[in-house]
Amino acid sequence: MKQIITTSKAPAPIGPYNQAVMVGNMLFTSGQIAFNPETGNLILEDIQTETKQVMENLKAVLAEADMTFENVVKSSIFISDMDNFSKINEIYGSYFNDNTAPARETVQVARLPKDVNVEISVIAVK
Q1: Closest CA to 95 of 46, 59, 50
Q2: CA distance 51 to 59
Q3: 91 Cβ contact list (under 8 Å, min separation 6)
Q4: Residues in CB range of 19: below 8 A, 6 or more apart
Q5: Residue ranges of domains in the chain
Q6: Which of 2, 23, 71, 121 could tie 31 with a disulfide, CB 3.0–4.6 Å?
Q7: What is the pLDDT of residues 51-94, one digit of tens each?
Q8: Do the Cβ atoms of 77 and 118 come closer than 8 Å?
Q9: What pTM did the predictor assign?
Q10: Domain spanning 2-125, CATH architecture
């Protein structure tokens, strides 16, 4: 049976989806973009600041499910420009221990919602 995970500490969905769904001991998050949940504004100052907001949003969703980034087993990163990969990777990597980092794919896409530069989703296991 699935359980819907919702927190006010991450942006509310802008469509017919939920922030995350828990099935058994597995958590599947929706992709997060750089909305500040307190103001509703997009944080697009620079790619590092944008990526940090995305990761903080994911952190809040994980926390609502009583998990941390240590529980993440898979992540998917979608970026609009592969030239930003190293800057995104630097911020993303700061949230994980290199020895226990999850599996991951990073894909350049033509366009992302709200014309953001990065969107990240994760799968986590308790």
Answers
A1: 59
A2: 12
A3: 48, 51, 52, 55
A4: 5, 6, 7, 10, 11, 12, 13, 29, 30, 61, 64
A5: 2-125
A6: 121
A7: 999 999 999 999 999 999 999 999 999 999 999 999 999 999 99
A8: yes
A9: 0.97
A10: 2-Layer Sandwich (3.30)
